[in-house]
UniProtKB/TrEMBL annotation:
Domain of life: Bacteria
Entries under Gene3D superfamilies matching the protein: Dihydrofolate Reductase, subunit A
UniProt-recorded name of the protein: Bacterial bifunctional deaminase-reductase C-terminal domain-containing protein
Taxonomic lineage: Bacteria, Bacillati, Actinomycetota, Actinomycetes, Micromonosporales
Domain Bacterial bifunctional deaminase-reductase C-terminal: start-end pairs: 92-178
InterPro entries per record: DHFR-like_dom_sf, RibDG_C
Length: 214
């Protein structure tokens, strides 16, 4: 079967923003409070950071589990990896996720300022200054037959959509407006020339948008 490039469990606000304005080390989502964007996923039984028994089942939990299914590599932009801009001042920063990142695969970080690869637990981060198509080709090879997840952020997802490389997307729309920041779309209808779309409301209050290539 063909390897897919998948966007999974990516969260946006009702007005289309994936993150707020003014990202920093202390505020990874800028001015935006991330809780309304992510609370649906954090409440599920399968949430990766859950430390206690319990959690919801049903649609939200199914989509949370599906985000990890058959993923062999990840691609992300530098702004998802961390808040630094420009040349690396040092190599001590190793991402937001601590000593055991949740990826458990090779991760390809797109940046104009490359640095040496490093591993944390079973995740290895590689830094590449390449085109989307080149990054995807390397990620597919590293994925060893499994799919590749496109983790974000917004600018990276848009770049891969514009390059016509994305096969499927799951976008969770939270019932909150951010008003400014990095915007994925004015309306999801903007993507209907490239994708089929189904909209599935959840009891948690989010609406799950499922896109697949035409």
């Amino acid at each position: 079967m063909a390897q897919l490039l998948r966007v999974q469990c990516f969260n946006v606000s009702r007005d289309g923003f994936g993150t707020g304005e003014g990202q920093s080390l202390e505020r990874p989502f800028g001015h935006a409070d991330p809780t309304p964007l992510f609370s649906w996923r954090a409440a599920t039984a399968s949430f990766v950071y859950r430390t206690e028994p319990g959690g919801t089942r049903g649609l939200d939990d199914y989509l949370t589990r599906d985000a990890e299914c058959n993923i062999g590599a990840e691609i992300m932009g530098r702004n998802k990896f961390g808040p630094q801009r420009g040349p690396w001042k040092d190599h001590e920063w190793q991402g937001w996720w601590g000593d055991n990142p949740p990826f458990h695969t090779p991760v390809f970080v797109l940046t104009h300022h490359v640095r040496p690869s490093f591993s944390l637990s079973d995740t290895t981060f590689h830094f590449r200054d390449v085109s989307p198509a080149e990054a995807l080709a390397e990620a597919k090879q590293a994925a060893d037959g499994r799919d590749v997840r496109l983790g974000g952020g917004v600018a990276t997802i848009r770049e891969f959509i514009e390059a016509d490389l994305v096969d499927t997307m799951h976008i969770a729309v939270a019932p909150v407006d951010l008003e400014r920041g990095e915007r994925l779309w004015g309306s999801p209808d903007e993507l209907l020339d490239r994708f089929h779309l189904e909209s599935v409301p959840s009891p948690s209050g989010v609406t799950h948008l499922l896109f697949w290539r035409r």
